[in-house]
Design brief:
By secondary structure, this protein is an alpha/beta fold. It contains 14 helices and 22 strands. Keywords: Isomerase, Magnesium, Metal-binding, Phosphoprotein.
Length: 452
Amino acid sequence: MTDLSQIVKAYDVRGVVPTQWDETLAELFGAAFAEITGADAIVTGHDMRPSSPGLSGAFARGAAARGADVTEIGLCSTDELYFASGALGLPGAMFTASHNPAQYNGIKMCRAGAAPVGQDTGLGEIRALVERWSDEGAPEPAAVPGTVTRRDVLGDYAAHLRGLVDLSGIRPLKVVVDAGNGMGGHTVPTVFEGLPLEVDALYFELDGSFPNHEANPLDPKNIVDLQARVRETGADLGLAFDGDADRCFVVDENGDPVSPSAITALVAARELAKHPGGTVIHNLITSWSVPEVVKENGGEPVRTRVGHSFIKEEMAKTGAIFGGEHSAHYYFRDFWNADTGMLAAMHVLAALGGQDGPLSQLVDRYDRYAASGEINSTVDDQTGRLAAIKAAYEGRAGVALDELDGLTVTAGDWWFNVRASNTEPLLRLNVEARDTATAERVRDEALAIIRA
């Protein structure tokens, strides 16, 4: 029996091409996607990886064979595909492996209006169909096959974003943008065209072999070039996008990283000015500063598990106006609850360009605590180590525990969270405290138990 458990993850399809999956499987995924969504029309897009056009084309053929009309938007960022799904009211499929190495590719799928397709919302059923058809042969084509047409939505995507954040009146800014040879090199020129921005473009050439560095700005080694260029040129800030350009990472005028929690707080304050009293979602390892800023600006903070499906689910349930994660994913009600790094970047540019001070000074009010960042430890027994931490802190005076996602331990002037990786034998630790000395003490104490 065919088993696709190695490539069908919790939220997407991802694996090495062609050893783990290929165009034959992509065609079956297209057929299954059309079947499970029941859609008579879908939209597809792809990133710059060498295997992406072929896989995307095969998926379109599979969907069309089941009777669905396919609109191919071609080269695009993941948030551009979400835009197309929302604006056109169609289920969508984006071919990308985000920041994974060149030999990988994947599919991020959504229902109409960019609603996520995950393991419990259709992906499990799609996998089961593809496994069955792999063994028994593809289903009979529909009596009337669908059509496959091309459509360029980049201009419409840019116009939509520019309608949400007006940058036309800001003071002129010099911004270094590192696209990492990913899809930011495709979207940034159109979105920023004609605005009072002097863009210093780093690695805008689309190249799925990632010749300069991995397109993963959360890894400090991948923003070294951006930091150096900002310092060398005296730029006002730097922006780094990941491979499919749905995440954006910010550095200030000194080249220092701005924490995604500070960006979440900044954008939350701006969104609450537009939507007074709104709800803002934040995952449980964003900084204490996020719910504080939300409350200070008259909003309602809601804490969730880590992961885009949980954020989007909670946004839909609560009608939230905005959501942010420590991983530099930012979600907007005005963008069909989907994540878009570009829109978050535009909020930062608008906030910076709307006043005279430097970015470091602007974000200082949102960056209030000392944090460890995410520390990964390889362990033999994730469950056993988590139980050991729980035993060590349970019953301590002034300490509260919760298990919303992994284990969170909270005291008066610090907290930490430990979560197990779903894909590797790792425990992930995040610590925050009111001062650096406390953060280091708590970090070392927790790591001693994790790595015992």
